[in-house]
Amino acid sequence: MTALTTPTPASASASAAATPATLTAMTVLPSGKTYEVPVGTSLLQALLAVGEAIVSKCGGKAQCESCHVFVTAGRKSLSKIQRAENEKLDGMVGVSSQSRLACQALLGSEPVTVQLLSST
Ligand code: FES
Question: pTM of this prediction?
Fold first, then answer.
């Protein structure tokens, strides 16, 4: 007697079309937790999605400074700083060479480490 072929747990054809997202690692300080997050999303979106405490007062429009973070590793993997972000960073206090606005920095394929700052 031959049994039917073993079905796969989920219909591969149904779920394959959903999201071909590539993931990368995002380590968040000071918690030290590392998450797998989709390449191409902003740091802000990724941080909010995993439940890290970050503020976004302007809704991600590079206008409020509340999402300022330090990227301590993997900076080159992020999207380049565009004009709006650069202009905002120029006018901010406490900026360093590691500074990014999380709403403007898109994740690349290399792992990143993000230092959250205490903002209100
Ligand atoms: S959320 Fe306002 S500048 Fe990024």
Answer: 0.81
Q: CA dist 70 to 5, 53, 75, 113, Å?
A: 53, 14, 9, 8
To test ligand 1's pocket by mutation, which of 69, 71, 103 has the most ligand atoms within 8 angstroms of CB? 103
d(CA 59, CA 57): 6
| Confidence category of residue 21, pLDDT binned at 50, 70, 90 | confident
For domain 22-116, give the CATH number.
3.10.20.30
Q: How far is the CA of 22 from the centre of ligand 1 (A)?
A: 25
List pLDDT tens digits, range 81-91. Answer: 999 999 999 99
Closest alpha carbon to 118 in 66, 72, 73, 75? 66
Q: Give domain limits for the chain.
A: 22-116
